[in-house]
Amino acid sequence: MARKGQIEKNKRRQRMAKNYAPKRAALKALANDESLSNEERFQARLKLSELPRNSAPNRVRNRCDVTGRPRAYYRKLKMSRIALRELGSRGLIPGLVKSSW
């Protein structure tokens, strides 16, 4: 089980990334627009850098929904390999058959 603080920090980052996504996208579009002057593009980049760092989507870490584990994460299932194996052994995941010999 991951530390509660790390899980909460990641949830806060997810919320911030979602809230700031439209503003961040608009500023990026202005900064990358070749038709604008260099000064306007530079101002857009300055405003972009003034946004909170945790509002950037690449700061969000994929974590297991069951355990909070940050590594060995399956995106499709939103859980780690260890949680998947445990739930599969218990028969809680439909269609999953864990082989054992």
UniProtKB/TrEMBL annotation:
Entry's Gene3D superfamilies?
1.10.287.1480
Record keywords: Ribonucleoprotein, Ribosomal protein, RNA-binding, rRNA-binding
Which Gene Ontology cellular-component terms appear in the entry?
cytoplasm; small ribosomal subunit
Record-level GO BP terms: translation
* Listed InterPro entries: Ribosomal_uS14, Ribosomal_uS14_bac/plastid, Ribosomal_uS14_CS
Q: Identify a single GO molecular function assigned to this protein.
A: structural constituent of ribosome
The superkingdom listed in its UniProt entry is Bacteria
Give the multimer and partner information. Answer: Part of the 30S ribosomal subunit. Contacts proteins S3 and S10.
User: What NCBIfam families does the record tag this protein with?
Assistant: PRK08881.1
- What is its biological role? Binds 16S rRNA, required for the assembly of 30S particles and may also be responsible for determining the conformation of the 16S rRNA at the A site.
Q: Which family does it belong to?
A: Belongs to the universal ribosomal protein uS14 family.
* Name this polypeptide is given: Small ribosomal subunit protein uS14
- Native species of this protein? Lutibaculum baratangense AMV1
Origin organism lineage: Bacteria, Pseudomonadati, Pseudomonadota, Alphaproteobacteria, Hyphomicrobiales
